[in-house]
Amino acid sequence: MKILYGVQTTGNGHLVRSAAIISALREMGHSVFTLMSGDQGKTLSRPEVYQPYEFRPGLTFITRNGRIRYLETMRQLRLIRFYRDVRSFSAQDFDLAVTDYEPLTARIARRNQIPSIGVGHLYAFAHRVPLPKNDPLGVTIMRRFAPTDIPLGLHWHHFGSPILPPTIPQDVYGKELPLESKILVYFPFESPERIGEFLRPFREFTFHIYTPGLSTPSEEGHLLWRPVSRRNFVDDLADCGGVMCNAGFSLLSEALHLGRKILAKPLSGQVEQKANALALHRLGLGSVMSRLDRDATREWLRLDPPQPRNYPEVLPRVAEWIHEGLWDRPQELADRLWA
Fold it and tell me: What is the pLDDT of residues 58-81, one digit of tens each?
């Protein structure tokens, strides 16, 4: 088959997951063209995996100081360019479209009547999963952002629907004895000044803080500032005692897989993260705070780590499912994986 594969570049989870499926599909003999949109400044760690590929602006959100800025988001949206890209894309030779929450590919497939599959966490929200009740507009936007014929959602529980377990990258591993005093911190939407002020009182713990935009590592007593690096990040995740982060799906899934305790702060105004935090709480998988809360953090730091979830390998099975053309039977795939 000739497959159009859409990748949302705002967030590393989309890229990591798509790279594995694209590679597997090519090994099975399929021709794959990758269409990327979102963060056009994103540095691809292995660009050869996605080739041939191209970037388009697509649609994305503006965030600042831990909140989505809707007015600034509206100002930067290039809707005319977006719909021009949908209409002008030459799609007549494609047999299938797969999108990891990439909106251009979803609408190109719909306009050209190409069967489409959505792979990603947000496609779980097509089913009955925990969702915030006070943000119906956000839920509607989330469900319609990149619509597909067959939503293949990922989540920490199936909720009685054809939802798959989380996809865990091959580079994620764990050590038998994590260091309870070592805490991994990743709040990319908060300023380093706010994070530092927040964590300084907890001197009995060492915080490894990954900060976008930082070029060299530095140390400030028990606060270890680190530039963003996937390899170093995974090394710290492997032996840390806990993870403090926003409520993005990929990192939370990796921490759950390894059995690391979690304290999540959902990004304000971001309905996906609010939904993730709600599910995390209802399933008893982690702790949640609505702001940088020292009292909540102090209580969380005393907790024991949970048991590892040990999720199965999902990505190879998804690639095989696409290859075999079993698109009308997602429940069978979900049942096999959760078993």
Answer: 666 655 554 555 555 555 566 777
Query: Which residue blocks in 167-312 are alpha helix, DSSP H?
Result: 192-199, 230-239, 249-258, 271-282, 294-301
- The per-residue pLDDT of the chain, averaged, comes to 90
Higher pLDDT among residues 67 and 103, named by residue: 103
Residue type at 284? G
Query: Is-contact 156 253, C-beta < 8 A?
Result: yes
Residue entry with tokens 């032996």: 239
Q: Is the CB of residue 12 less than 8 Å from the CB of residue 248?
A: no
Asked if residue 316 lies in contact with residue 19, where contact means CB atoms within 8 angstroms, the answer is: no
**Domains of the chain listed by start with CATH number:** 2-168+312-338 (3.40.50.2000), 179-301 (3.40.50.2000)
Least confidently predicted of 13-22, 54-63, 79-88, 149-158 = 54-63
CA distance 306 to 285: 8
